[in-house]
TrEMBL record:
PANTHER family with a match to the protein in the record: GLUTATHIONE S-TRANSFERASE KAPPA (PTHR42943), GLUTATHIONE S-TRANSFERASE KAPPA 1 (PTHR42943:SF2)
Sequence ranges assigned to domain DSBA-like thioredoxin in this UniProt record: 6-206
UniProt-annotated catalytic positions: S14 (nucleophile)
GO annotation, biological process: glutathione metabolic process
Secretion signal, residue range per the UniProt entry: none
Keywords annotated in UniProt: Transferase
EC number per UniProt: 2.5.1.18
Pfam family, one: DSBA
Stated name of the protein: Glutathione S-transferase kappa
Molecular function (Gene Ontology), one example: glutathione transferase activity
Amino acid sequence: MARRKLTLYFDLHSPYAYLAFYVIKNSSVFKTCDITYVPVLIVAYVNAIGLKPPWSSPNKAKWFQTDIARWCREYNIPWNQGLPANYPFKVTTLKVQRVLVACSLECPSRYPDVLNALYHAFWVEKKGVQLPQVHEPIVARVVGDKLAAKIIVKSTTEEVKSLLKQNTEAAIASGSPGLPWIKAVNGEGQEEFFWGFDHLGQVVKFLGLRRLNESHL
């Protein structure tokens, strides 16, 4: 049987993608999987598929905080109430998503740790990581000043800009209606896509993993 594979398409902007990332990274359930984290740009979904985010409706905007808090309590995910600085669209996540693409290329072994640090700063500490003056020191703290500087320069290249665009287009073309978008390949090589943190249990079942619950974190 081949190793199971899991690909998480994410944008820091999506709180539900944060929940999916945290559980996938930290739960022992997924330790036997080859995991790939793919940065995309959520604002591109608005024009491409007419995505309407939760904050487009006052009731949805209020409800999603209640919903997320419940999930976080159930799965022991770090979370504080409130919204991050500059959220939702005062400043887009374009630059920090490019930094994450660059990080995946320059230091793939540290990439999950950088992503974890940025997610924690954004959704737990509520810092505006969209801004370079906020996310650059966080990257440096994880990988060191020299490598961080290399990553930041790389993030401004046409290669990285093109990759982020390609990632986003590929996710949308595969049917993604929003984030998190998950591609799973089981031990028999069968492939399925799943949308939303609330379908992570279906991902576990499809991959033939043991049942997911909060005790695994």
